[in-house]
Predict the structure of Threonine ammonia-lyase.
Amino acid sequence: MSIEHTVTPERIAETETLIRPHIRRTPVMRVDMRDFGGAPLPVDLKLELLQHSGSFKARGAFTNLLTRNVPAAGVVAASGGNHGAAVAYAAMRLGVPAHIFVPSVASQAKIDLIRSYGAELVVGGDRYNDALAASQTYVATSGAIAAHAYDQVETLLGQGTLGKEIEDDLPEMTTLLVAVGGGGLIGGIASWFRGRVKIVAVESDGAPTLYEAFKAGHPMDAPAGGIAADSLAPKQVGELMFPVAQKFLQPPVLVTDDEILAAQKALWSGARIVAEPGGAAAFAALLSGKYVPGPDERVCVLVCGSNTTAVKFG
């Protein structure tokens, strides 16, 4: 059955009801681009970085654990950091053992967070796909279930609940900017809206997975580097989400490391928001002028992750 028939608005709404007791309804902040040195433009920021475990990933994590039979061996996840932290958090809350595999590019902030939730953590390999391979070996020998970071129906359903929440909060929104890594977030959100709003995909030019997939007509290996490599740099975009992307999205806007860093700094200086590089990438498209909204657009930017040590308090 195609993804359009499995990740439907009806199933996303059912999922939202199921996981609602376990997740936060994150706030929306209205800002003006003048706050960041730009021309006057009202923008809504959906602050999903305030979600449990510091990113939107908690939605997919709870969906995986609440809709599947979890064996005594528990759950396994491979992650650049945020998905692993979310699965570890959900497992802790639900009393499930968790084994998390992360690559060496995972930030210390994310490694420390995963450990704080009591999960068994394995660091190995240089990139996400190395951690994924190690996790698959563990699944085969342990009997645990795998919770995929982005290429799984349950994950897409969970992330899609964020689309519903944004629409409930901002019914007049016309344009939503979303960062892309493996595509689980934007795939779930696009499955909710189904073309009713304009969704602008934003990728790091160091990890243009969806951009390259659009060029090729199918998911394919892409570079996996850049400042946001621990959250936006799988080798390929997800197979499941790609048909949804082809139907409802345009090729992504690409932003540079410098533009992402500038967006991080601007969010802090202009709005006192501490976002990790991947969490600030969508805002970078707007701040840099890589995406220029039309005069009638009502813009929302999804700020999706906060697991960073960028701010130190003394």
Remarks:
- The domain at 72-143 is CATH 3.40.50.1100 (Rossmann fold).
- The chain is about 45% helix and 15% strand.
- The chain has two domains: 3-55+152-302, 72-143.
